[in-house]
TrEMBL record:
<feature type="domain" description="4Fe-4S ferredoxin-type">
    <location>
        <begin position="31"/>
        <end position="64"/>
    </location>
</feature>
<dbReference type="Pfam" id="PF12838">
    <property type="entry name" value="Fer4_7"/>
</dbReference>
<dbReference type="InterPro" id="IPR017896">
    <property type="entry name" value="4Fe4S_Fe-S-bd"/>
</dbReference>
<keyword id="KW-0411">Iron-sulfur</keyword>
<keyword id="KW-0813">Transport</keyword>
<keyword id="KW-0004">4Fe-4S</keyword>
<keyword id="KW-0479">Metal-binding</keyword>
<dbReference type="GO" id="GO:0046872">
    <property type="term" value="F:metal ion binding"/>
</dbReference>
<feature type="domain" description="4Fe-4S ferredoxin-type">
    <location>
        <begin position="1"/>
        <end position="29"/>
    </location>
</feature>
<protein>
    <submittedName>
        <fullName>Ferredoxin</fullName>
    </submittedName>
</protein>
<keyword id="KW-0408">Iron</keyword>
<dbReference type="GO" id="GO:0051539">
    <property type="term" value="F:4 iron, 4 sulfur cluster binding"/>
</dbReference>
<dbReference type="InterPro" id="IPR017900">
    <property type="entry name" value="4Fe4S_Fe_S_CS"/>
</dbReference>
<dbReference type="InterPro" id="IPR047927">
    <property type="entry name" value="YfhL-like"/>
</dbReference>
<keyword id="KW-0249">Electron transport</keyword>
């Protein structure tokens, strides 16, 4: 499943540069994750880097975008060949 940034986000700028899919961008109030681009770092790393660097642990699995590991990997190959 894609990830989601909660409203507790403090806009610390840690997650955006760490995303290898460029799925994270600053929204109107907080950073947001584009579910179409988020692969939870599958194809790049062992675990999501945004979650690893978030100092307040406000990035969670998005219950509105449930995807299997195979679907996330297919999304990675579609974006990166």
């Amino acid at each position: 499943m894609a990830l989601k940034i909660l409203s507790a986000c403090i806009n610390c700028d840690m997650c955006d540069p760490e995303c290898p899919n460029e799925a994270i961008s600053l929204g109107e109030e907080i950073y947001e994750i584009d579910a179409e681009k988020c692969t939870e770092c599958i194809g790049h790393y062992d675990k999501p880097t945004c979650v690893s660097v978030c100092p307040i642990d406000c990035i969670i699995n998005d219950p509105d975008n449930i995807e299997t590991e195979d679907k996330l990997l297919a999304k990675f190959f579609k974006m990166h060949g």
